[in-house]
Design goal:
- It is built from eleven helices and 13 strands.
- The chain is α/β, with parallel strands linked by helices.
- The protein has two domains: about 120 residues, NAD(P)-binding Rossmann-like Domain (Rossmann fold, 3-Layer(aba) Sandwich), CATH 3.40.50; about 200 residues, 3-Layer(aba) Sandwich (Rossmann fold).
- The strands form three sheets. It has a six-stranded parallel beta sheet, with helices on both faces. The protein has a five-stranded parallel beta sheet with strand order 2-1-3-4-5, with helices on both faces.
- α1 packs parallel to α6 and α7 packs across α8.
- It starts with 17 loop residues before the first strand and ends with a helix.
- It holds the Pfam family DUF1611_N.
- This is EBNA-1 nuclear protein.
Length: about 350
């Protein structure tokens, strides 16, 4: 019997267009919010800004806050998603400059912007807003585990920051292009900024993780697909709790494993080796079958950005033959990605 579920998270209206703030980031994986917005919402981004020491770029024009405001920007988005979601002291002066230029500040970090005294004072003085995206809705229920109507796909990963969001967005786009009724369900700050709504799963109290996933993807018509953005990894020593709650609550009929074949250790936890794709498939089925016994793997999404086109094609073909599943890079697309879409919808 289908379980009634609560409402979806309210839609999010942010001041756009954005100026993307990269801080002093030197690791591209930690700038995934900036890259996600630049890649999936380019019409809402006017440029990027950074401070000394930054070695990362989205490829957008490097602008001062004043130039960005003159170009139409209405907010500066903190494009960094670092470990712990902290706001570095070295960023504060640049963010104050942005407010003085007439920009609101949008953050997906765990730390609340208004808890930083200098930012709170600047907001009072300039009249600009401090907007925290990583805020879950009130009244999230505990999970009930009952089966809901409709179909669900969840992207899962061997680690963090390697393509779960991009894969979900690409699959959702492919489903819609095929005339399928589908929604992208955002579960992280960047996805929420792109989609205009969702629930930041890593800001939800652990007891309510599964319940949050249930209200994020409520009962739907039988032919409807919810494509749910995955978070973390059930093999990550720090973030497995979020991943497991999302897996149980979303009750996926199909999951796609996302993997970066160039990565050998867990990001930011170098004493832990990356799990294999095979291990993730096996454990996801064993854990996911608790709330959906019919769960299956639709295929694998590889982040082949570190490889040439020829190397990527050979690697995907070899992995597909080894696993007996479609293997594709959604960003490269092509026949391999079409086969992955076919498998998910089969």
């Amino acid at each position: 019997m289908n379980a009634p579920t609560g409402r979806l998270a309210d839609s999010l209206v942010l001041p756009q267009p954005y100026l993307l703030f990269l801080g002093d980031t030197v690791e591209a994986s930690y700038a995934k919010t900036a890259f996600g917005l630049a890649d999936w919402a380019p019409d809402r981004c006017v440029g990027e800004m950074a401070i000394g020491g930054c070695t990362v770029t989205t490829g957008l024009a490097r602008l001062s806050p004043a130039d960005a405001r003159a170009a139409g920007a209405r907010s500066v988005v903190i494009g960094v998603a670092n470990q712990g979601g902290v706001l570095a002291d070295s960023w504060v002066a640049a963010l104050i400059d942005a407010m003085e230029a007439g920009l609101d500040v949008v953050s997906g970090l765990h730390v609340r912007l208004a808890s930083v005294p200098a930012l709170a004072e600047a907001a009072r003085r300039t009249g600009q807003r401090l907007i925290d995206v990583r805020t879950p809705p009130a009244g999230i229920p505990i999970g009930n585990g009952r089966k809901r109507s409709g179909k669900r796909l969840l992207t899962v990963g061997t680690d963090c920051a390697l393509g779960k969001k991009y894969t979900a967005l690409a699959l959702h786009r492919a489903f819609v292009q095929r005339g399928i009724d589908a929604d992208f369900r955002a579960t992280g700050q960047t996805g929420i900024m792109i989609a205009g709504g969702g629930i930041p799963m890593d800001a939800v109290i652990s007891d309510f993780e599964a319940g949050a996933a249930e209200i994020l993807s409520p009962d739907a018509p039988d032919a409807h697909w919810d494509v749910v953005e995955g978070q973390g990894s059930i093999f990550n020593p720090a973030y497995a709790a979020v991943s497991l709650g999302l897996l149980h609550g979303s009750q996926p009929d199909v999951f796609v494993v996302c993997h970066d074949p160039a990565r050998t250790v867990i990001l930011g936890m170098e004493s832990f080796a990356m799990p294999s794709v095979d291990e993730v498939i096996d454990l996801t089925i064993r854990l996911g079958s608790r709330t959906n016994p019919a769960i299956r793997c639709g295929g694998v999404s590889l982040n082949t950005s570190a490889y040439s086109a020829e190397e990527a094609e050979a690697l995907m073909a070899a992995e597909s033959e080894r696993l007996g599943l479609p293997v594709a890079d959604p960003i490269r697309g092509g026949a391999a990605f079409d086969a992955l879409v076919d498998s998910c919808l089969a």
